[in-house]
Amino acid sequence: QKEVEQDPGPLSVPEGAIVSLNCTYSNSAFQYFMWYRQYSRKGPELLMYTYSSGNKEDGRFTAQVDKSSKYISLFIRDSQPSDSATYLCAMSAGNQFYFGTGTSLTVIP
Amino acid sequence: NAGVTQTPKFQVLKTGQSMTLQCAQDMNHEYMSWYRQDPGMGLRLIHYSVGAGITDQGEVPNGYNVSRSTTEDFPLRLLSAAPSQTSVYFCASSSVTGPNQPQHFGDGTRLSIL
Predict the structure, then answer these.
(1) How many Å apart are CA A84 and CA A41, to the nearest integer?
(2) pLDDT value of position B99
């Protein structure tokens, strides 16, 4: 069983839609949770970073962590074509980071 | 404002050849790491370092060596390349001012082993 599970998609939505991306995990030691965005042929770039359970908002992006269910989510409001990318969830314990496989998102104008 | 720089961007090797993937960061980050990214597998940690002179293995270390002689540089060596090592390799760094700081990534090295 993988440490982190993420639906690879692909996910296709119209411009302006609300997007929900999700990951589940099995290791209860994970304490730090991150979402990265990766454009084609580029390295991942950090979008959101949260510690422990709860919500964190940054502009059109909201990250949600539910440690009791071992479930994290990223919501994108008013999605734009520039949001088209692969979104990776990541989590860490100690000195090691564990990534989901990524969800490919296309926002159609 | 370079961040994390990886060289080369592309490389083709023959089975059995050796090579070194270079990674340099200019942010004075203590923590550096190497990942490989394969379709359906996501990013998997190969090796990491928490400071100069200190390295440790990640999830998939076999066939790779690392060393960390300076804070800035963290090269990854393939000792005898195999087709299974065909992948995109990413280097990342982060500050260790607090635990588990999020990482900054380079743009990757695309490696093909024939």
Answers:
(1) 13
(2) 47
User: C-alpha distances in angstroms, B23 versus A99, B5, B91?
Assistant: 21, 6, 6
CA nearest to B104, candidates B30, B8, B19:
B30
Q: Shortest CB distance from A34 goes to which of B50, B99, B102?
A: B102
pLDDT values of chain A reduced to their tens digit, one per residue, 109 residues: 678 999 888 999 999 999 999 999 999 988 889 999 999 999 999 899 888 788 999 999 999 999 999 999 999 999 999 999 999 999 887 778 889 999 999 999 9
**Residues written for chain B:** 114
Residue from A15, A3, A14, A7 nearest A74 by CA:
A7
Buried (b) or exposed (e) across A75-98, using 16+ Cβ within 10 A?
A: bbeebeeebbbbbbbbbbbebbbb
Residue A36: which H helix or E strand, with range? strand A32-38
Point out the residue among B43, B48, B56 whose CB comes nearest to the CB of A99: B43
- Using an 8 Å CB-CB cutoff, list chain A residues near B107: 41-43
For CA atoms A67, A68, A70, A73, the dihedral sign is: negative
Strands A45-51 and B64-66: unpaired
Q: What does DSSP assign to residue B40? A: T
